[in-house]
Each structure stands twice: as structure tokens, then as C-alpha cells.
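Fold this complex.
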Amino acid sequence: MGDLTYELPSDLRTIETFVESLLEHGRRIGFNADRLRLNLRVCVSEAIANAMLYGNRQDPGKRVRIHARFAPHQITIRVTDEGRGFDPSRLPDPTTPANIRRSRGRGIFLIRQLMDGVQFNEKGNSIEMVLLNGPGGPVAHSA
Amino acid sequence: MSFDVQKRNDITVIDVKGQLIVGNRQELKQKVLDELEAGARKFLVDFAGTGYIDSSGLGVLVSLSKKIREQGGELRLANLNEDLRTLFELTKLDTLFQIANNREDALASF
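Structure:
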């Protein structure tokens, strides 16, 4: 197992292939296939897209760093952008009647629903996500 | 990722093949807007060939739903696999869209 570190350019087209490589790591260590296909794929894709779009504002000069730790019982992924950060506590709930018809604002919500642990750094330009091995689908509770 | 557009009587059926994500959602949006412009009012988006939709893809469906409704039209979705259903349920978008298990049920519901 161990720690892996990657850097991506702020190019949305790189996300799919990169996430697939992470899923392959997960498959090799025997992580639950449903959890990889749904929980890990959705959350890592969303986090990286957010980093590129909102953190780095698609600046080709800015990069996204991904740190991944794979273990049979747990996968930990940290995604960091080079932006100014933001306050994740101010994100509105996209499922309320007032917000459900908005076209944006569901990415971090989904991460919180599908990851067992979610933490932002103080600046708000780095998110760490923890996924425990187990069946796929929404987690019982999320941080 | 690709989109196929067919007509079934007055219903515009769009088959989404591949992932509907941030990098290609504009293409779906433009296709539907072009059809709306041409007078189409009934739309079915069939996801039988889709394994994954990200939050941007969900967002474009919400945006299209609004634009179609503003024109007096209707939108249905069909053939969401289990993962996609989970995403719609988590975001409560299953309460916003009419979702059919298969294409024929969706077509019959207009």
C-alpha cells in the first residue's frame, strides 16, 4: 500500500483517466467494487473538478495535487489546489425547495453523502476524504 | 461521450452514451436548446448508455428542465442505472424529474 502523490494540470479532460487509475489501485487491494465505482469515483472526480474550476479557475499555470493512501480497510484522498480557498461552511444545502432548482452546488454535498470522513484545511483550498471499506451507496453519516 | 437524437412522433429522444460530466454537459445543453428553438416541446433523455453523471451533469439537467418548462414543454428521463438513481435520490432530484424505468414507459407518459 503506501502513499501516492500526483499532480494534474488544470485540465478537466485529465480527470476521467486519472480517477480510473485510482480505482484500479483500489481494485488491486481488494476494496469493495461498488464503493470504488460509486463513492470513490464520484467524490474524487468532484473534488478534482472543483479544484480545477473554482480553486485554480482553470488557469493552465496552476496545478492540482492529489495525495492518496490505499489500505485494505480505508482509502484517504487529499486534493489541493493553488487557489485562494473558500469557506465550505457557507455552502447552502442544494436539496431544499429554495435551492433544488439551482444548476450548481451539488458537488461537495455529494462528497459529504458518499465519504465517511470529509475535512477541509483552514484556508479552504484542500479537501481530505476518507472512505472506509464496505458496501457501496450513501454512508450512514458523514463529517 | 456522444448524443444521438431521434424523433418518436412529437417526442425528441436523446440517447446519452458515455459519461455526462463537466467537460461535455454544454453539448447536451446546446442540442436540447437547438431542438427547442426548432419547436420541439417533448423531450426524453435516455441514459441506458450512461454509467456516470457528475454534479455538473445533474446541473445541466436541472437547467434544461427549467428552460423546457418555460417553453411549455415536458422532460422525462429514463433508464437510470442503480448508481445514477442513487445520485438522483441523494440530491432529491428524483422529486424534480419524472423518471421512468425504461424508454417505452417514458414515451407512454407524455
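The beta strands of chain B are 2-8, 11-17, 42-49, 74-78, 98-100.
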